[in-house]
Amino acid sequence: MTVARNKTILYALILAFTFISPFLFPDFGTQLATLWLMIIVALTWDMTGGQMGYNSLGNIFFYGTGMYVAALIAIGMVYDVGDYTNAAGGGIYEFTDLQYFGGLALGVLGAGLFCSITAVVIGYLTFGLRGPYFAIGTLGVAIAAGELVSNWDWAGGGQGIALPVYPGDLDTGKIFFYFLFAAVGVGTFLFAKWLYGTRFGAAINAIRDDEEKADAMGIHTLRYKLYTWAMAAFFVGMAGGISAFQLIHFEPLESAYQTINLGIFMVVCVLLGGKGTLWGPVIGAILFHVFKEVTWNYLLGWQWVALGALIVVTVVYFQDGVMGWLLHKRPEWFGIKVEKKVAEQAE
Amino acid sequence: MDQILGNIGLLFEFPVVNLKIILDGIMVGALFALAAYGLALVWGVMNVKNLAQGDFVIAGGYVSWYLVQNGFPALLGVPVAFVVMWGIGWVVYKLVISRVIERDLFTSLLATFGLAIMMAQILNLLFGSDTQSVDLDYDVLYFFDGFIDVPIAKLIGVLMASALAAGVIIFMKSSRMGQAIRATAQDARAARVMGIDTEKVYAFTFSLNSAICGAAGAIIVMVWVIQPFYGIAYSIRAFVIVTAAGLGNLPGVIAAGLGIGALEQYGAHIFGIGYQQAIAVLLLLLVLLIRLIQQRRNRQVLK
């Protein structure tokens, strides 16, 4: 009883902090929004990576695709896309408030749906690949998509797309995007929390533990894999769509299909926090984001080296992550009862 | 679309263009095959997928370039890069790789990805992000009324690559260490029982891979250009080649390397140079899909 109440209080506190933080730290508005983005991509990566055992290196594909789909929907509702991208942000293209927010809402939702559909299509082709081949294959999809889009002149080519600026005060805009990201982030978390408690969650865990046996038990593994990836892609796509409007200008290789940046960060976040746990990705994303911002500020020039080193150290020495470490040190926190005598005998 | 059709038409109108593309492709492919052979070696022997493969190549290129900047002859760069990258490979093995051998494959993939980021950035900090190359003062040979130009520097590069490959093959076939490496690849436990120090074999294999990559990079810097962030391109191609050829299939690796070099040149000719990277990656996906279809299990249920 007290555990349940403690949990409710904890969740309420976190939610309250979510609401207050952009006002408490107005200088860090964009940083906090990015933190939510990291949490979203880490949580969704963990759906397939941690819970289902399919380590994708190509989830960034949905982020980039979400960006493009949202931008193209928002522009396409008002103007001809080809003309708009030709002008490269110049020209007389203006958006009224209604057009901006309408485009944003429809674009972000459309991005999520489109990414879900592409996840099913790509998943159908790639989910036969196992282990590292799946990772390489999905990485290939993301890189190829970036290269192809950067050759696609109608969608801006290598220059990318410049979206309209948030109508109104710049600081309000920051808070607006923070809350958009936070809403999607909270939604993703609650969805994941609910999902892992259902039969569906048990089924994908079975796929992770032994796919052949799961298959033999009558679980239609391909269907489960496709659904899971489609759900993950939905949230990543929405996050990408919001990012497109937040960044205002984005281009294909460095900001949309940023394979070696965000694409690898999300994996490191999950490993740092603890794979296959609900809170692991969240904790990992926070730790990673703080580490990244600190090195970016104080180790200028060497920040990437530090980041690469963090990846190597995390993967090689600390792969169970914070949650795995806690599970080992404090099993009683997770409701696992260790008989004292047995534990002592074991030692 | 018209342009693409025009480019294809050109191939039939002037068959000599085909010859030029294939020649170019083979020259590129020979160097891809070297990097891919190192990857296949490490993959087969210690089950580590090295995503930093291309960055070893680029690092070797910078070793050679640095020597030339300090007044040494360019051809000396190849053996020096071999030796220097051997040492770097050994350090990397001791620090990182030796700890991921026993782990699952995704671990080695991610760890070497982190390594790749680090190496690219360190090279960037040391040498700057400009493209660099070493200029060899050799003539260019012309055939077919100047349709086909073969720089002698490229020929030397291909010859050196072949010599290196031949040396490695002979070493693997006949030396004691080569035998030990092959024995470890077949069954590491049995090799240990037979008294082979597999830890030493692993360290040697990874250093050898790094050295081969370094030498390949030293050749590349003479023939094309290098840049700190070009590594990933070579890594991807090495993966395409090894996935297509399979492990432990040396003739396959060489054939796939040359074939992919040629295919890529054709793709770049037909679709434009902007698609070259995309074509390499799409080839990887194609190879994976073909493998998948080959291994497709026939699912059946009783009704």
Could you explain how this protein is built, in words?
The complex is a heterodimer of chains A (347) and B (303). By secondary structure, chain A is mainly alpha-helical. Chain A contains 16 helices and two strands. Chain A folds into two domains: 57-259, no CATH class; 266-347, no CATH class. Chain A has a two-stranded antiparallel ribbon. Chain A is globular and about 75 Å long. With 303 residues, chain B is an all-alpha fold. Chain B has a single domain (2-294), classed as ABC transporter involved in vitamin B12 uptake, BtuC, CATH 1.10.3470. Chain B has twelve helices and two strands, in the order αααααββααααααα. Chain B has helices at residues 2-13, 15-46, 53-69, 77-95, 105-127, 152-174, 176-186, 188-193, 198-223, 231-245, 250-271, 276-294; strands spanning 140-143, 148-151. In chain B, strands 1-2 form a two-stranded antiparallel sheet. In chain B, a hairpin with a 4-residue loop joins β1 and β2. In chain B, α2 (15-46) packs across α11 (250-271) and α3 (53-69) packs across α9 (198-223). Chain B starts with a helix and ends in a 9-residue tail after the last helix. The A-B interface holds A 55, 57, 125-126, 128-129, 131-133, 135-137, 140-141, 143-144, 147-148, 150-151, 260, 264, 267-268, 271, 301-302, 304-305, 307-312, 315-317, 319 and B 49, 96, 99-100, 103-107, 109-111, 113-122, 124-125, 232, 236, 239, 243, 272, 274-275, 277-278, 281-282, 284-285, 288-289, 292, 295-296.
